[in-house]
Please model this.
Amino acid sequence: MSQLVRYELSGQIARVTMDDGKVNAMSVQMLHALHDAFDRAAGDSAVVVLRSGRVGIFSAGFDLKVLASDDVEGSHAMVKAGAELALKILSFRTPVLGVCAGHAYPMGAFLLLASDIRIGVDGPYRIGFNEVAIGIPIPSFALELGRQRLTPAYLNRTATTGEMFGMKEAVSAGFLDRLVPAEGLDAAVEATAEALTKIHLPSHAIVKQRLRSGTIKAMRAAIDAELTIERYRELARDRSSVNLSRAG
Model:
């Protein structure tokens, strides 16, 4: 497993921990490492606990230095890998528990939206889609994911204005399911993960497919239509510069 992502299997629980030593930017390398971890968990038929190994940050989202550069191929590869990862997690056959103990910017917010259960820490952190605030139109696959988990009013607020939400409001929006105090996080995660191992996993997979089939098809169509290298070159020519000063 890559040094960016740690994979630990204990019984029926696979713990996937992101840690790039900084802010868990969703670089191509990080995304590929996460793909590998979920493929491994699928082979192990394990419940997945996805979390950050960094204090105060789940993920800073896509690597903005790549998006702000002239590397269209690199930007395309990164966004495509992120889209495919979100789709993989949304349709994963076993439960995925997302643990957010810090800020979550896109692509980090997308990973939480794709997870089945999301536990957050009650702290001074923000979650949301800040793309339009920094000069990036939100990809259609992400809007489809947002429609599946966020309330319409909150989706419109974050998608069209780039508004980021505090943790309590993130629960109301649908980014998270519940909050726990920082000192109680590990116990809550372990109890929830253990409970998920007790459900009938084949039934879980069937119901997840039935419930999410429309979103899965819409995301697949959006990825195939919008995230081609040809289309991405067109979008890159028309897009204004990414404003890194407004990314924080």
About this structure: The first helix runs from residue 28 to 44.
